[in-house]
Amino acid sequence: MDAHTQIDMAVCCPGGCFLGKTRSGACDCGHGRHKLKKNEDGQRDATWMELERHKLQAYEYLCHVGEAKEWIEACIEDELPPIDQLEEQMRNGIVLARLAKFFAPEVVKRIFEDTSKLQFRHSDNINYLFTAMHKAGLPDVFFFELTDLYDKKNIPKVIYCIHALSHLLAKKGITPKIKNLVGKLEFTDEQLDATVQGLEDAAVPMPAFGNIQNALAAELNEEPEETPEEKRKRFLAENEKAIVKSQAVARGHLVRKRHQQRKAELAAHEKDIVKIQALWRGRGVRKEYQSTLTRFKSNETLFTKMQARYKAKKQRQDYLKRLKYLNANESAAVKLQAWWKGNQAMKQYKALLNSKDSADVKTVQSYIHLLDDGVNDFDEELDVQKLRRLVIKGIRENLTDEQELNELDMKIALLVKNTISLDEVIHFTSKKMRAQLAESAAALEKEGTHWTLKGSDKETKERRRRYEELFYLLQTQPIYLARLMFTMNKKFGAGETRFLEQVVLTLYGYAQNTREEYLFLSLIESAVHLELSDINKLEEFWRDNPFFIKLVLQYTRGAKERQFLRDLLQPVLKIVIEDSSLELESDAMAIYKNIIREDELRTGEKSTRSYDATPQQAAQDPEVQEHQVKTFLRLKEITDKFLTAITGSLSKMPYGIRYIALKMKENMKKKFPGATSDEEINKIVGNLIYYRYMNPAIIAPEAFDVIDTAISPVQRKNLAEVAKMLHNISLNRDLGTSDNAFTTRANEYIKTAGKRFAHFLKEATNVETAQEHFNMDEYVEFGRNEKPIIYISPEEVVQVHRNLAENIDTLAVSKDDQLRIILNDLGTPPAAADGVTPKGPGGEVALTLTNRFAKTEDESETRLRLLVNETKRLLLTIIRFTTGKSLLDILEAPSNEAQEKLFGEYLDQETKLASEKKERTPSDNKTMSGSLGSTMQLSGSPTGSPEAASPASPSSAANYTSVVTLLKNADGSFMTFLQLKVKALENMAQIEAAGQATKADGYQSMLNVLVEDLLNKQRRRAQRRREFQSLQTTLVNLEEKAKFMEEQKKSYHDYIDACMAQLTNKKGKPKKAPLFSRQYYHMRDLQKSGKVPQFGSYKYSAADLHKKGVLISIDDYSPKQYGQITLTISSDEAGVFNIEASFLGVKLSEKMELRLEDLLQSQYSKVDVVTLFDMAKVNLNLLIFLINKKFYV
Question: Which of 578, 969, 1174, 1179 is the most buried (most CB within 10 A)?
């Protein structure tokens, strides 16, 4: 082996590898370091060997410098220059002073950090390190001299000192250990050559970095570190048990291996081994069996007697033990029997509720009393129908009043804005105008040419019936209305679909009825599905402004929803309203200005704060920050109370809003499966429940009857701040990234509170289905005694008809669709000019909705249906007095005297009840007597009105006819019980012949029909009671609202009167026209003819009006001809202006009338140009200005 190979093997990597080198110069273990290289020409000599040794020394030195660099960076937590630049950068001592400050901060007073040039003051930085090392206990032998670093006399000594310091501080746990980077860093040949040259120029010995730990231990009089051999022996001694265990595991592995080999050999011959074992065991068992069999046969009689005696003794013991046990637990046995009987009764009841086919006669007989129509049922049904009718009528009247108030408000606003007369406002509610409308309507009706739904002729009745079928279909099949709302909202937007909102609410009776609320929620569910089917991203949902949200908002303003908001919010709102000192302003700029204002008011001197401060500067003001912190703490306290109240109100929250939220959530998950997180859906649900439902009642509680007092601007601002915080909590959305005190704390609070609200929203959508909540199923509609009625204006009927016809291709794809069939029968909807009765108070019609597409019946089917109904009532009477396995057994069994006697008593009772019902049946529309009398009269129509006597009234005595009429013979005498059975059997035979029942199952199908009727009867009673309570509450609220609106209208009229008086006082005499002017001659002509208009008349040429800018152009006339055209504007009625035109002195035959209210309304609608006489285009704003100037100023 030559010298070159020996050197290559001697240079190992820092990991101790002697694996040899790769061709690139790195060891096989992956560690990299400098390797001795050949000359480029492949020759070696003494110069080459010396040069490579110096490069190796330079490489290791640079690695030690890198170790010191990384250690210092870890201590001072800052990045230092590269290794080859570190020596120069360390000369100013800044890095070393920072290092000293890290482990001995008390010795470093002030670091001189001027890096422009090296100065003598930098030596103070180096001295800080000397002082710190002395204090840390580093022996002086490791210290370097000041000039070693400052003058670069011995930089390796400085690096050596840093290494020694690192080992000392690491032992004390002050700093991390210094790393060993030898072999892990790479340097270019240029860097190595520069380092070699630097070391040669310094001419200083290279410190022994490898022995630094032992040298440090010797100086500190500590034990030196162990040698690798000593470490190995100590390791073996300390881990003797583990090594023994490892050896045991190895030996066990060998034993198991041999065991597995043995098992493999046996498995290879498994079949042969099993066969041998089976043969051997079989031989032994057969031998034993033969021996036992021989012994039993020789003693067969004895064994039989022994078995019999043993069994008998065992049975007697068990019987006596059981008897003793029962006697000892007699009371428990009685309870058990009672439980068993109760369980059987419960099974019968469940069979009645949940089964259509398994109920027996006994079960029906147990609950047959539930099918009776008592006096209370009769009265309650009448009361509910009256209340419901009055509620809908009251709602419509209130809506009419609201519309009147809105229009009055708009007219007053236009009056104030334009400083004009009030005549056009007064005419809106004047008796004269209403009389004119009534006279016009009467004239049209007299002529018989107008479209109507109230006539008694055949054509009108047929038209009315078709519309009743149409609206029943729209009400019970919500998909049609959902498609119509969706289509019209897409085409026209909110402005053109406002009427549809009113019609939908009317059609569903404002969801005041259980049935109609259920159908209304079904409509909303269909609408939600359609809206989601049209979007591709969840965030587009609110952006499209879905129409159904308007319906939901109207629905959530109902009586029970408003009462819920009142009970929920009133206690917490009082906290904000009653605290007169509360100020929740959080805007830094507003607080800053308020502080300036308070300072100046308090001191009387100009504030020292800047008036032109920016929002950022205001936010940095200490007093502003302090105020924001206090504001946040108070806002958090109040918001917490609101949040606690809201999250604790889940059990009382109205079902409808929770159900709508559930359907939105379900449809969103179905539309976007897997792509949408629960958090995003929660935000939309939160937007509905909080922002759309609760938030308006918090900001404006007086508008929702939550409180009865007025709200001041400061209180409104405080409520807005609370509502804003709650809104962000509901969306779990922070207030932004601002670093001011308020925003930082608020974001932390929102993050925490948002989790509470998210849990609340999750629970809010955990509700039962609408069918379960409202007890609705496929039988409810068929079990109703009355038909649904809606109250709607003819104008709304025609508008709905027109919209359906225009969008029929979207609403009904199939040619034989039910909607298409009805619309084809109705024909083309009437146009506006066909004399449709105008919408207004008293103009509604009552439509009794009819299901056209129920199964049509011919004469035989009608007779069969009536026969089935009659037979059901007969069977119910029979089941009361007898029982059996089936209906057939009951009917075929003979009657006895006891049954005849009970039946006679029943007839007497029913006859008396029928008489009471007849007496209690109302002959007119009188209001209820008793405690509810005043409530019932608040919105009712006068007694004797056409609607009161409507033949379509849902509560007629015919619907509650007693069974007595069915129990009479042809001669009018009552049947006997036997005759009743015979008649029932005859009826059942006819029903069987029609295929509706069979003897084979004992007429079980008829029994099932009775069970269905019984179940629906109970549900109807519960629904009726809930409806009655809800309607009572609604009527009270309607009365309060009606009173409020009457007061509002009175105040509006008072204001109008005051304005009228003020305007009259300011109005002076009109100025006289100049002599010989056009106006002078015009007024003279009018005076001669005695036709001077009451409010004035003015004559202009078209050229004058064109010059003023009032006239824009006249079709077919050039501006040169305008001087030959004159226009006269006169007013003989307040707010009404007649315009006459003449050409060359010849008047046009037509005269045009303009109303100031129409002009103002057009101006309000941003119309700039109007056309007169279908030819003259006029600037609307200048025309109004001219009228105001001439007639009102």
Answer: 1179
